[in-house]
User: What shape does this take?
Amino acid sequence: MSRGDHNRSDTSPTVHGRIRGADADGEPTTAHSPKLGLSRAEVLAWLREDDPARLDDLWRAADDTRRRFVGDGVHLRGLIEISNYCVRGCTYCGIRAPNHGVERYRMGEDEILACARQAHDFGYGTVVMQSGEDYGIETDWLARVIHSIKHDTALVVTLSLGERPEADLAAWRAAGADRYLLRFETSDADLYRRIHPDLPGRVSDRVAIIKRLQELGYEAGTGVMVGIPGQGHETLADDIELFRGMDMDMIGIGPYLPHPATPLGQLAAGAVSESGATATDQVPNTETMTCKVLALTRLVRPDANLPATTALATVNKSDGRVHGLQRGANVVMPNLTPPEYREKYEIYPDKAATHETVEATQQSISGLLAALGRSVATGPGGRRHSGH
Ligand code: SF4
Assistant: This one.
């Protein structure tokens, strides 16, 4: 029996027959097909579905919904990993503060502007500046960088810099930043705290920060990891419910990939229970499981921008990105970080495209989109409001 078969009863979804069952809350499931706006019980049943033929129906429904709501255009958002310093100690992440084996870097203003101009020249609509939670990135300095990017290019500026204080977020918004990405990683508060320990005296509440970002005028993005030790199917269904209720610009979904130089990375295979997992309902950190979450997210948030994440492209180097784009995704984030820094931003091992040049990445993504019959979307790529 595969892991996904555990706890299957008569709640499994079907395309042809009406299935009746009940989820953990006693809510009846009446899933006819993987349809737009499906219920939590149906989401849960699909998360547990492992029949490839049925999953083909899910992929098709997500792809049809993607085409109907956000079209065939794929938004390219140029990623610049501006610093690998981080004050946090997330127990799976390769650039966590206690990892002294990492050679740290922080990019200069000119280097960042050169990457932004490259994004502009490639015709991208957005540049994403990402880092660990690095207080060496000073508020005024970054405000100046944002201002320069906005002055020099027509790019939308997205930030992904961790849980910075509200005054920083407000200053960067005033300088012209448009979007902010902050993954809540998992809706299970205990599990979250286990993998993402609080800083002394500061309780991490990412959902509250996301709401505050929206109040500041940012378009906000979030996301989760799939297959965290201790994460069961019910938890993932809760994650998707949280997406349903959030007005997000972008939702990033990737497999959990612990770095070997971390406490969770060093847990021996099969030692899942040591980290608090319930072995019978543990979600696998596979490509298929990640794609299920991606496809179901497309069905509950049809107008969201969903990336085919680098982590998905890492777990299946040959087809992960293609599968993402065929199962609900409409965004790709080509990495524009200069090669000398890229390999130092190793949050998980063997990250896709780490040793590729920027030009090679650009070429391979263009070729991939052409082969899929998808176009490069133009313009800023904000979320279309469908009224759903
Ligand atoms: S996951 Fe993010 S916040 Fe946590 S250690 Fe890594 S870079 Fe820092």
